[in-house]
UniProtKB/TrEMBL annotation:
Gene3D superfamilies: alpha/beta hydrolase. This is Alpha/beta hydrolase. The chain crosses the membrane at residues 29-47. It holds the Pfam family Abhydrolase_6. GO terms for molecular function: hydrolase activity. Keywords: Hydrolase, Membrane, Transmembrane, Transmembrane helix. Residues 1-23 are annotated as: Disordered. It comes from Halostreptopolyspora alba.
Length: 342
């Protein structure tokens, strides 16, 4: 004998009735879920970025970036030459600043992620007392370089950089990389080292140690262009040891690039010990003791253990913005290193 339960309208709701209604409700729920899924996928397909190369997402965004870039370039002296070097992967913007010892191999600077040549502004004067300096806007990053072909892996990364360096008048250079630029420098030293006299890596990311989970998590909202500007400013300040970034020309340039440029680059992968051991070049690794990009102790130890011709220096109080915090000390260490590397 089944037991019925009285409903509000005076009817009865028994177990058999519920079992008959449940499939109908389930079908309606599945139908609406399917409709919503189709709408969501359609909306994603309508707005997704399908370009295989890095690019600015709008003409207005590009114009805003150019204004920020030009303001940041005002902190540099007038370049002695502006070069647009053609490679299989696009046109690479390079600036030359004439410095000391023009008969010796120059320094070629590679900036960090979402950055460009102006990030070297605080270092250039002291470096020019040592050598002529070239600065490179990385291909596939915000800047004045223009990517035209997909860069799919580390081999492609090395190939375009090697092609660009081969177009310089000097047969060999000392490659100076900051953050992801340090990774790019070591990637070239591993894969195509014939244009290199040495490598200098300033707190290189994903090179000698993995990126901490906290840094990866914090970087996600900062990398979404339509999220608030304050989120990117907070991330950039955090990586710089809490230094203010508002109303700083180079920081504004970086934030504008993060907001308006869509990168299509492969994620850098940390090099294996076996690959690092193949590098037969002098390498100066300057590690920031307070860096959020890696465990600085692990990075220093691994550089010493794997590189046969390494000089490893740790600046204990430096953040990942090491180049702006210790420009004179970096120049002195580079000068001493180059005396032996030439």
């Amino acid at each position: 004998m089944s037991q019925n339960t009285r409903t509000d309208d005076g009817g009865s709701e028994g177990a058999p009735e519920r079992s008959e209604q449940r499939p109908g409700r389930r079908r309606r729920w599945l139908r609406w879920t399917a409709i919503l899924l189709v709408v969501a996928v359609g909306a994603w397909l309508a707005v997704r970025d399908t370009s295989p190369v890095g690019h600015f997402t709008s003409a207005e965004g590009h114009q805003e970036y150019v204004r920020a870039y030009e303001r940041a370039m005002e902190d540099l002296p007038e370049p002695d030459a502006t070069l647009d070097l053609r490679t299989d992967y696009g046109v690479v913007r390079v600036y030359r600043f004439d410095g000391a010892a023009p008969e010796k191999a120059p320094l070629v600077f590679l900036p960090g992620r979402s950055s460009a040549s102006p990030v070297l502004a605080g270092n250039l004067a002291s470096l020019l007392e040592i050598r002529t300096v070239y600065t490179v806007d990385l291909l596939g990053e915000p800047g004045a370089s223009i990517q035209t072909r997909p860069i799919r892996d580390g081999a492609d990364q090395a190939r375009w950089l090697h092609q660009a360096l081969a177009e310089l008048p000097e047969s060999t250079v000392h490659l100076l990389g900051l953050s992801i630029g340090g990774w790019s420098a070591m990637n070239l030293a591993i894969r195509k080292p014939d244009t290199l006299a040495s490598v200098i890596a300033l707190d290189p990311a994903m090179t000698f140690a993995d990126m901490p989970l906290e840094t990866m998590v914090r970087s996600i909202p900062a990398s979404v262009g339509w999220f608030p500007k304050s989120w990117r400013d907070q991330f950039n300040s955090w990586t710089a040891g809490g230094a203010p970034v508002e109303d700083v020309a180079v920081a504004d340039m970086i934030e504008t690039g993060m907001r308006h440029y869509s990168m299509k680059l492969p994620a850098p992968r940390r090099f294996s010990s076996e690959r690092l051991e193949t590098v037969d070049l002098p390498v100066l690794a300057i590690i920031a003791g307070e860096s959020v990009m890696h465990d600085s102790g692990e990075a220093a130890r691994r550089a010493e253990d794997t590189l046969s011709r390494a000089t490893v220096v740790t600046y204990e109080d430096a953040s990942h913005a090491i180049n702006g915090e210790y420009p004179e000390e970096i120049a002195a260490d580079i000068d001493e290193f180059l005396d032996d590397a030439d």
